[in-house]
Known about the structure:
Layout: E1 7-8, E2 12-13, H1 16-22, E3 26-27, E4 62-67, H2 84-95, E5 108-113, H3 119-122, H4 124-127, E6 131-137, E7 141-147, H5 151-168, E8 183-186, E9 191-196, H6 203-223, E10 237-242, E11 254-258, E12 262-266, H7 274-283, E13 287-288, E14 293-298
Parallel strand pairs: 3-13, 4-5, 9-10
Antiparallel strand pairs: 1-2, 4-6, 6-7, 7-8, 9-11, 11-12, 12-14
Amino acid sequence: MGLIGKLFGGGNNVNIEEEIEKKGFSTSDCSFDCDSCHSKFPSSVSVEEKDQLWNSTKEYGLHIVVASGKTDWPHDACLTDGTVGNAVAGWAGLSNSKYPELGASSTIKVTMSSLGSEELHTNEEYILQRRGDILILPFFIWIKNVSAKEVGALLNEMMPKLIECRDKKLAPPSKLDNFDDVTIEADGFQSYIFLCSHKTRDKRCGVTAPLMKREMEIYLRDLGLYRDISDHRPDGVKVAYINHVGGHKYTANVLMYSKTGKNIWLARCRPQNVRPIIDECILADGKVWPDKVRILQKFDPIEW
Length: 304
């Protein structure tokens, strides 16, 4: 892999392998040739192969994932007034750069996800998305049963507490004053893998994400790490769909978070890449391929 990505577009001499190592990651020599793959993308799926992927998206310090139980969303997934997703996106817009303690970037990313709960089938407020659950990464914290009306006040109170708990190695609070109905839970999984399935934005994502997810879950079952919606055993790896993250022409985009603090964003991934991704990025904790990396970030490890 020594020759891959030596030159970064625009004539700037950048050794991507050295940049990867500076960020605390290592490179892998895996060929991505997995004969046990069960599926392939249809020939109709076109992928931009020539662009340089390295640093093709911006760093961020916080990712809030809203559990919607859906696999596709309107073109602007967070636009619907009165919903938790809309409220979280509005709070994020006002809070970008407000928390420099998050790390190299204090930008806040918000996405809808296929993550869900029983309430999404039985509770009318959940069904209408006026109330819901949100996952805060890289903190691996769930805030559950939050009303869209109280999102802003709750997150304003919660964020300083999370940062303090992270820095002082304290357990996060299970409740907050003035938010009696809201519960806070530490997430028990070791890693999350997110795939864009937003076919309303780009049909390719609606085709590629299910194939990638299926292949990942087959292999995770073999490893004893697969977790379905009702399986909350600790130390598993959860695969879920999210809405538009940018770079559809580089499908499939794969975003990964580990409790060890590593955040890996790969692109141009295919089903035959799944086993190397899980073996190297998840289980080997951060080995990557220079020609498939969009960004790498390293956050403080989470101990809860």
